[in-house]
Amino acid sequence: MYQPLPIGIDDFETIFEKGYYYVDKTLMIKELLDKKGGVNLFTRPRRFGKTLALSMLKYYFEDTGDMERTQKNAGLFSGLAIIDAGEEYTKEMGQYPVIMLTLKSAKQGSYKMAFACLKQVIASEFARHEKALTGKFARPQDEEKYRKMCGRLGEDEDYFTSLAFLSECLYQAYGKKSIILIDEYDVPLENSYFAGFYDEMVQLIRSLLESALKTNPYLEFAVITGCLRVSKESIFTGLNNLEAVSILRNDYSAHFGFVQSEVDAMLTKYDMLDHRQMVQKWYDGYLFGNTEVYNPWSIINFVKVHGSDPDAFAAPYWANTSSNSIVKSLVEKIDDDKGQMQEQIEKLMNGGTIEKPVYEDVTYDSIYDTEDNLWNFLFFTGYLKKISAREEGRKTFLTMAIPNEEVAYIYERMIHTWFEKKQQAFDMSPLFTAMEEGDTEVIEEEITGFLAKTISYFDYGEVYYHGFLFGLLQMNGKYRVRSNRESGLGRPDIVLKTPRIRNGRAIVIELKAVKKFSDLEDGCKEAVRQIKEKKYCEELKGEGYENILAYGICFFQKECAAVLIVP
Q1: Which strands sit side by side in the sheet containing 494-497, from one edge to the other?
Q2: Closest among 301, 292, 304 to 256, alpha carbons compared
Q3: 401-414 pLDDT per residue, tens
Q4: Is residue 230 part of a domain?
Q5: Is the pLDDT of residue 526 over 70?
Q6: Does 217 share its domain with 355?
Q7: How far apart are alpha carbons 116 and 94 in whole angstroms?
Q8: In terms of Cα–Cα distance, which of 436, 442, 534, 450 is closest to 489?
Q9: Which whole-number Å values give the CA distances from 188 to 42, 109, 278, 465, in the listed order?
Q10: Residue 223's CB: how many other CB atoms inside 10 A?
Q11: Quick one: average pLDDT of 356-365?
């Protein structure tokens, strides 16, 4: 019987209470204690284990005020790597009051709703400490304010400084400074930018964090997680003890995501090591510092799905956990671009690289200010990976690529959606008129013009051209378009037929793709030969169509040539 896999489980205690499989990341505790950072900001892509890491820290460090409960928390770490790190680290277990807050719930459609949800989260964290604080307030007014905060009855401004106040109350009760853990601090910022109340949310988050993290005498240390470091908007104004650890840093690089040895151990345990190459292709490829890591969300989902269906194909599990709106924005910017953006996306989609300057403090309200900002946002949120880096003057330049098949799927899906919308504005009448009149010169010009407006990938293979032309030809109100239908002795690529046979028309198209421009003519000849030899027009004649045209069309990159056959 295999251990269950913790899909969507981000509470450290639940992992062990329910017997879930756990990839041991507890040495993050050792590194935190060794480095003695004051305020540690970890920026990683979504679904890379940030919430579970903070939960682990809470259970390790927290003095709950209840000895039995604190000892139970310590028992969760039995047999894990941090226990073997030595007494220097284990003596820190259960020694601090801990404040933990997640800002995910503030992802709402209005500032009012976002603030209300944040109040609820803060109230819940206050209430979590109620038993330990009862009877231990230094001043009656502190207890009165605390009770109001628990009941969401405090003044609005009280919530702006609530974490600082709670840490002071805990110090009064324990005589110890607090560890503050804040998860997904930038989720409300991203959401509020797209929802239209960014400035208000910046003010709220800035006040909340500043009061808790800047010159707070009751703070032991803090750990914050998010996707982006957004220092330009003064979220961390004057915070001299901020240690920002992005995916460019080597330290802490193996604590988020799974390294190869961890993936191999999981695949071995679940008898799936023969799928190693598949999961590498689909979910590997991220580079944190100099450490190559896998997307943990996708690996866990892959193993779970294949446990019940060994023949299942790899799937884009991470791709389906978000709107991926930033990739959509990138693709849609092509319409305002002079060709460079389209060329760069095509290069990435065909396995190539691009080089861009890197800025670690891109802000949500500046994502679309420059093309470089948009590429940076894609990099730090996991849609691109670092291949190499170089310095030029005061700038660092990254060579970047698409990490893996799963992320390539996201780009591909967005490109399809973008092009389908773009097609609606195409004037298809010249192409259909030319096909009906046998005008191959106009056919070539029209198709080449449409190709110039697309993002091409799959190495310009026949599959790509088939999908491209089939999609175009469906945009008509006259013909039924069929793809790869059985006909004669084989399958023509595309067949167009009018619904009425009497006085109607049918068009057969066979496609080829070549590797050199000089081979276009030979490709057309090969298509014509295939139409004739396999008698693609015979079935249409048998159906009663008398007006039949056939075309051999050959492609090289964004060029095409066409040859007419009249059966």
Answers
A1: 480-483, 494-497, 506-513, 548-556, 559-565
A2: 292
A3: 999 999 999 888 88
A4: yes
A5: yes
A6: no
A7: 32
A8: 534
A9: 17, 10, 36, 42
A10: 25
A11: 82
Residue of higher predicted confidence among 58 and 538:
58
DSSP state of 478: S
Quote the pTM value.
0.85
Query: Higher model confidence: residue 358 or residue 362?
Result: 358
> Rounded CA gap, 304 and 312, in Å?
11
DSSP 546: -
371 and 500 in a single domain? The answer is no
Cα 430 to Cα 281: distance, rounded to the nearest angstrom:
43
Classify residue 246: in a domain, yes or no: no
Report phi then psi at 180, rounded to 5.
-110, 125
Determine, yes or no, domain membership for 418: no
Cα(392)–Cα(544) distance, integer angstroms? 70
- In angstroms, what CA-CA distances link 254 with 119, 247, 249, 260, 291? 34, 10, 11, 10, 7
pLDDT number for residue 321: 67
What does pLDDT average to over the chain? Answer: 90
Residues of the domain holding 146:
57-240
Do 182 and 77 share a structural domain?
yes
Task: Check the CA dihedral 492-493-498-499 and report its sign.
Answer: positive
**pLDDT per residue as tens digits for the range 269-326:** 999 999 999 999 999 999 999 999 999 999 999 999 998 898 888 999 997 766 677 7
Both 483 and 559 in a single domain? yes
Instruction: For residues 174 and 205, state if they share a domain.
Output: yes
Name the pLDDT band for 491 (thresholds 50, 70, 90): confident
Q: Which of 272, 290, 321 is the last residue of a domain?
A: 321
b/e per residue, 462-473, with b = 16+ CB within 10 A? eebbbebbbbbb
Strand runs labelled E in 9-157: 39-43, 98-102
**Domain assignment present for 28:** no
Domain identity same for 299 and 177? no
Q: How many domains does the chain have?
A: 4
Mapped onto helix, strand or coil, the DSSP state of residue 85 is: helix
pLDDT band of 7, cuts 50, 70, 90: very high
